[in-house]
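INPUT
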Amino acid sequence: MEVLLFILPVFFALSVLIIPKQGVRAYGIIGSLAVLVVVIACMMQYNNDGTMHLFMQKPWFYGITLSFGYDGISLLMLLLTAVLVPLILVSNFKNELAENRLFTSMVFFMQLGLIGVFISMDGLWFYVFWEITLIPIFLISWWFGAPERKAALTKFFIYTFVGSLAMLAALIGIKVNAPTFFIEDLKAVVFTGKTACWLALGFFLAFAIKIPVFPFHTWQPDTYTKSPMAGTMLLSGIMLKMALYGMIRWMLPLFPEAIHCLQYPVIILATIGVVYAAIIAVKQKDIKRVFAFASMSHVGLIAAAIMTCNFDALSGSMVQILNHGLVAVGLFLAVEIIERRTGTRNLDELGGFAKQAPKFAFWFAALAFASVSVPLTSGFIGEFLMLKGLVGFDMVVGIVAGTTLILGAVYTFRAYQLSMYGPVTRDHFADLHWSELIVLALIIIAVVIFGVYPAAITDFVNPSIKVVLETLSTPSGL
Amino acid sequence: MDALLIVFAGGLISLFAAFAKKPFLVVGSAMAGLLGGIIVMINQLQTGKAFFDFLKYEGLLFDELALIYSLAICVLALLIIGIGYERFKENPVHTGEYIGLLMFSTVGAMIMTAYTDMFMFFLGLEILSIPIYVMAGSNKSDARSSEASLKYFLTGSFASGIFLFGLAWVYGATGTFKLLEIQAKIQEMESLSPILMIGVLLIMASFIFKIGAAPFHFWSPDVYDGAPHAVTGFMASVVKISAFYAFLKMFAICFGMGELYTFWKDALVVMIIITLFVGNLSALRQVKFKRLLAYSSITHVGYTLLVFVSGSMNAFTDLWFYMFAYGFSIVGIIAVGLAVNDQEDRIEALRGLGKRNPFLAIVGIVSLLSLAGIPPTSGFFGKYIVFSNAWASASWLVIIALINSAISIYYYLKVIGTIVSPAEHEQEKIKLSPLTVIVLIIALVGMLGFSFVISWL
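OUTPUT
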């Protein structure tokens, strides 16, 4: 059954190309829901003891194995992917893009790559799927993005490709000492301190560029703003999470020796990024840029929390990964709603929509609260646990990272206030379309449910996190 | 051996079929000859026995490696003839010569994979090269084509001369032409004779010229640019595979031991680094399609040369995989160039290809991704195999190669971007013949599923 995770996206990606134009919308949504059903079935099947459920494992060629499987962490990421893709398609419902066969096909290819990343338990397949995701997102943004997108996208592609090559070099470097690329074989390789640091650095470069961590972030705001809404959602909702997942699954367990030399620099860089991005977000005029930097700030905090290797922080980061994926999609949809109706994203030219579109104002406000992690939303649980871990790691780092809560409130509500309140700027502002309402409502409901009952997530991932941390604490991973 | 004869017979028949002035007959007989050769070789690989056991000649030995390389050569030659067919049809008078020469060149390539002494190698090299000198100039009305032909001929014969010169030195040092005897003689030597070393360097220089690596690469952009598309494709795929294999075979068997290995390896490492950077950096600013291809192929030669450095037992199969996968991408990209058929051969002419023929655009994009080495294309797996085997002995060189991969993505991406961008004004649709479509589907399968096919075998 798990093989359907590969077959369904490929099937829908190819078959959507020959569907009549009127049916593309419905077909895409049906296809993405089918994938969701399979993922849920996998979750039901999983016995949740933290072990790896390998559904396929056989040798391939040149030391590459066909090893695919999942544990709690992978399943959570799969769920995120499977939930967000239909949400993204529905939120595009009113757009003429939704009728485009190529667009829908590319979304499914993207889903294939993401699913592959989350269930590959073979180093090289992880790399292969990691790279596969790059092509559809590039094409989506290239075909359907803003007019002056080309330079930004080329930069994005080259940037991430350079990072990936560093990861490839590191993978080859481990493989030389291991019989196959299977994750357990790779974990069994023991490195001396310096080599481990260099190889871990190769992985880190790939992940840091994707996340993005502070000095490697320059591709991000331009790419986000120049991409079409669906591209931005895919990028910030799921694609960044690939890198966070990669840190938990590959970087930490493969190089437990390197944690000591990487931990401090990475946490400090990530924390700088958290504050830096938040400060920049406060000053932005373009509402999409505000949320682009907000995304960078939030994700930087998750990266820092993961590097503490603290149980609570990791568990919180999983909650926040799910929460951020949902909220980011919602926020970028809100941006798109504003842009589509007014033709601008400039905060100076916006204002007064709360009166004209009360439903939109309500759900946007709810999203803003979720984004700044007020209690009762899952963001609160996530950030609380992560900050707890960071404070436990180093008081100063924890406090500096904690300012994100304040700054987050500043930039989110500034953007909300400037766009929704103030003098009325437009004669007419249509309220939510039902498709938009569904997406926003589902996101808020999910966020609140997980905020009230976070154990739904944590109980699911905690056993797997425990397994990951055990490999770290035993010296040299043996 | 029998495959060689079948391909040769196919070439002869197609040459005579040209009297009928029916391109269909010529191409049909050539393809039949190549297909026959492929079937015979697959059979021999499976059963381990040739159809005609009595056909033997001591200068040629079709062992397993020679067979798989000949197989790759025949498959790629078949595909190149397939995509070139449309163009041959336009000029029925010359189809015969064209196809015949191509077939004979293929025969030369096969000889270069199976040689066991230097004589046969030289024979193979000349049988391979002389038809290409002619074919490069087959666009008689085009001055650039004639220039390409003349340039290739002059530099090529120089390289042959250098090879013979080097061979003379090696003969002087060892007193034999047979590969295995040379190997034995060199092993007996107490210390390396300078005569031998000079010979080895001269032979290496001629090979470096043939495969088009820096610093002997200057002919390749002009020749690639001037030659007709199908010939460019042939040079980039078939010629390169055979020259590379002959290079590796000679140097692994004769000169691959001990002190001598370290002696020429160091020279080669320097050349690899120069090749990679020269190819990549020159490719960055190209605006012409085939020139870009030429520089990209120089870069690929640089990557491929890493198999010489790895010194691993898998070097032969690594090289085979890499070059075969590379050949498929060349077929795909050449087909795109042929179909667009821009007089000035600009990259810009690819603009709007997605609208003009979506299938062709997909083939073009996949070929470029494969050339760039982006998963899941076989170009990536080829690169991975070569790099990972070279890592153990020269990890820093692999890192340089990876940096070059990162540079190269820029110009491939530029072409991909051009393909998927809409054209300024409406262009007519491109129609592909059924034969071309079949060839392109094979190439697409080769680019996307080659590693799966290999792992099942």
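end of record. The longest helix of chain B spans residues 143-174.
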